[in-house]
Fold each of these.
Amino acid sequence: MSSADSPVPHFEEPRYDPFRFMKWGGLLLLALTVMATLVYWLLGRHYGRVDWTPMNCLFMVVITLTTIGYGDWLELRNLHLAEVFTMFLALVGIAVPAFLVSNVTALVVEGLFTDIFRRRRMHKKIAALRDHIIICGVGSTGLHCVTELMSTGRQIVAIDHNETKLRHLCEELGEFPYIVGSAESDEILLEAGIERAAGLIACLTEDKDNVFVTLTARQMNRNLRIISKVLEDNSRRKLAIAGADGTVNPTYIGGLRLVSELVRPTVVTFLDNMMRDGRSTHRFEQLSVAKSSPVAGKKLSEASLRGKSNALVVAVKPPDSDQFIYNPTADVVLLPGTQIVLLASTLDMNTLRSLISGQGVAEHEL
């Protein structure tokens, strides 16, 4: 499912397209006009009325369909076949222009024109994105993912079936690109720029749906970093096989949080204030030392990260080790591939990413 609130099938629901209705309505009106003109002309031949020229017949059809009515233009009195056809045209044919007028009125009055142009503008914005993050489902979990990514200035694209919820989030957090549809659809993922994305978060309600999205996304982008929500422990292996780089169990995290609130409330309060307070500008960040980085091969003291950005290095993980070095000393060498966990202001993130990773996008933010 692509929403945490309502079940949806594995297919994309058709959307109302007023332009499609107007196109078919216009074609129907054109066909009706041509046919009615031809009938009047043939009736004129039948009654021997030489003044029933194609132009006069067309004019008769137009004033009838538009209800203008400039009198008995073709003088139909006592011509029973022509009178019957005119009544038929007036009763049935008038429904077509009325249908077109109602559609145009709906487009203007209900603001559908604005909505259509907004979607097209949003699609152009998504097409220009690179290294963005796709959030599949903005339910109870995806909502917080969008909020956190927005607060750290990341480029995102959200996918969900509930357009009302997406619009409400835009009003609350600020405008961001989104797509209304099923995240399990290949077309929707392509529209979200899956081939150019840096990461994907699968926050769908059921594990099987997260597995499906993960498998599809991995096939579309081999370099994509995929993190999925998981509810059942036996689903972790399936998600890993499908291509997920990591899984998060909200229930497990919730249990840890309950214990932390009980035994270490001050630490929890500190992290909450940093992560949730809208006025807080500090975040934990994980960056990898690139070969081209100015700090590659230097000691931590020589890199002077604290002096250049006021960043606090919390831990480092050497490229040839699975263990973190917490509170590293100044003589730790930052070899290429070293993972650095630091606490820094969001205002300094671009500087740190350029200094350490040699690029403008961090590999993974905690």
Note: The longest helix spans residues 18-47.
Amino acid sequence: MSRFFSERYAELTPYEPGEQPQDQTYVKLNTNESPFPPSAKAIERAAQAAGRLQLYSDPDVRILAKKLADKFGVEPGNILVGNGSDEILNFAFMAFCDEDTPAVFPDVTYGFYPVFAQIHHIPYVEMPLREDFSVDKKDYFDAGGTIFLANPNAHTGVALPRADIEEIVRANPDNVVIIDEAYVDFGAETCVDLAAKYDNVLVVQTMSKSRSLAGARLGYGIACKALITDMNTLRNSTNPYNINSMTMAAAEGVLEDEEYTAANCRKVMENRDFTVRELQRLGFELTDSVGNFIFMKHPDVDGGHIYETLKAKGVLVRHFTKERIAQYNRVTIGSREQMEVFIRTLEEIVNR
């Protein structure tokens, strides 16, 4: 750090994104990307938009917001579009948390939550997950702060039933409950209807996972108009042109090709089932993941060793050093061919 770096950020520990190595070609199963290319309609629409890049993008994202509103059965005023779902989450921390309103989230979850809290000097409470990595809904009754729940949960893939989340919402009428549904399309129940039913619910989704637009950076929030207005105040005070024209157009194309998205989700879930069976055959212990990834550990082989050896053999997965999950690795579900390579390589490691 330079001598000019503000002291207010001196203790900040930044978010560590998944590796994007360039040194060789990997079977890349570490960042929960889709193994499938974007929809042809998305690519076509983005290419058309490239011819108009001399013009600013629409700051109100009107066409895309209308398409999203139609998809979810809400009004365009209930939609906020962001540069990835991370931007929506950042606005939520800024808008609905402060020194008197802490953030509340699980101790094992999306790693950006504590970073957002730290960068905005927001106190936060980490609620321990149960032994099986599930959320105890009662921990969040009258939580006394703004609640952030990734559902399915990041890292673990474990999901809360929608009915349990609604109980949490009802138990916190004076605080906002943010449901981060980055992985919802792979088998969990969405809470979008709760955003229409309650004035303290924000549902956040992304096109990075099921819709193959990780490189485009497109996320969105769904909430009552008052919450959207709050976050739009911050957006328009920081970067009103936050969505570039090509990303906007690509996202519009994606929404015109929902059959493609649904087919890809089915393939991922089928490949997940195959991978789970094979890992169980090899003696691995797994969470009950309904994301596009699995969370695994072996009772006899160190998690760090598995990660390092897989990487040396050209298979990249995600390893975390936090004590409670240091024996686990998170593995993205890729194509069937990728998962077969992963299993064969893993079998060499555990049977050595």
Note: The mean pLDDT is 96.
Amino acid sequence: MSRFFADQYKDLTPYVPGEQPQDKKYIKLNTNESPFEPPESVKNAVSGQADTARLYSDPDLTALRAQMAQNYGIPADNIVMSNGSDEILNLAFMAFADEKKPLAFADITYGFYKVIAELNSIPYTVIPLKEDFSIRADDYVGLGKTIVIANPNAPTGLYLELSKIERILKSNPENVVIVDEAYIDFGGESAVCLVKKYDNLIVTGTFSKSRSLAGARLGFAFANQKLIADINALRYSMNPYNVNCFTSAAGIAALKEKSYFDNNCKVIIENRDFLEAELKSLGFIVIPSSANFVFAKTSLIGGKELYLRLKEKGILIRHFDNDRIKDYNRITVGTAKQMKTLIEKIKEVLEEIENEKC
């Protein structure tokens, strides 16, 4: 830290992204990326933008929002696009949370919420999950704060029923409720259907998970037109060209490949079921997942030790040092071949542990 760093940021603890090591080739099951490549139409759409790269991208993302509107059945004026969903979360926090309307979110959830709050000097309340890691909807009813809920939650993978989301919305009419649906395509019902009904709802999403575009950085939000206008006021004040021409073209093409990506989600769900069953057969406790990952632990080996041993064997999974979940690991669901290899390597680790006891 330099002597010039602003005092307001000196105590900031940055978000720690998942590892992207370059030392050797790994089976990457640590950052919830899709194991499937984008279709050729998406690749061609990106390469087709090379000649226009000298020009600024459309700040209104007119064509992209029009395709989003067609796919989701939501008017384009109720949609805003962003450079990954992290950007839209940052803009929403800035727009709708302050000392008068502080934030509230779960203790075990997406780590960026806390970082964004502290970056913008927004006070926040952390609400503990239940012992089984589920959200207690009653904790948010009539809370009178700006609420953000990841649904399905990360890193647990648990889904909160739409009826409970609606209870929270109804009971906080003077506060914005943000539902972060990064993983909704792998299980559960989207809250997008409630946008027209509630003027205090923002639903965010991403192309990173189910649409194989993590590296392209494309996110979005659905909300009442006035909320979208508020977000755009900040977006235009910071970075009006926030989505580049290559990413925009990739997004439009991806939206036209619905059947391709729907099938990929179906395969991932099947592979998730396989992984959960195999882990349980090995004595793991597995939290029921509605996402493209599983959250699991075993009494046979500590969470961090399992992570480190699998890394030595060329497999990356995600471990968190938070005391409440330090025995667990989050494992991205990959291809069937990757899941079988993972189980083989876990068996090797467990055998090594048993031999070391002798």
Note: The chain has a mean pLDDT of 96.
